Amino acid sequence: MAVSSMYNNPLYKYTLFQMKRRPTYATNNTTPFMTAAAFLDLPRRAGDASMATIQYPTRSCMWIRGSPVCIQWSVLDTSVTQVRIELCQWGSTAVTVLATHAPNSGCFVYTKVPWGVIGHNFYLRISDSDDTSNARYVASEYFSIGNPRQGW
């Protein structure tokens, strides 16, 4: 097969499409895709400022199942008194609620990472517990959850 015909092959185009699948956001610039982290940092509603900036967990960290972790964020909106903290995984609709009414102090100690979760592309979602629409939230960078002995 010649190189020029390879690029016109529907299977090749489909493979490229599968490799590029990620959240898109319509913009007027020439960049067709936006990274997932940038997508998660978009304001949730027009006019909303970010309520916090998550400092931990970061992309390079790994939580160990069964161990305690300290979740840290910078408080940007002091009018939010209590937050809801959820553990999510990219591509999954399952959500593990870590706290429903944690104080918006910038730190929350979760006593035990659940045993039922393991893998990559986990992220935290912190939202205002008084906002029932859950429209205003901030998401962390992706991180991993592994076993105590072997990591991932």
UniProtKB/TrEMBL annotation:
Residues 62-145 form the Yeast cell wall synthesis Kre9/Knh1-like N-terminal domain. The keyword Signal applies. InterPro entries: Kre9/Knh1-like_N (IPR018466). Keywords: Signal. This is Yeast cell wall synthesis Kre9/Knh1-like N-terminal domain-containing protein.
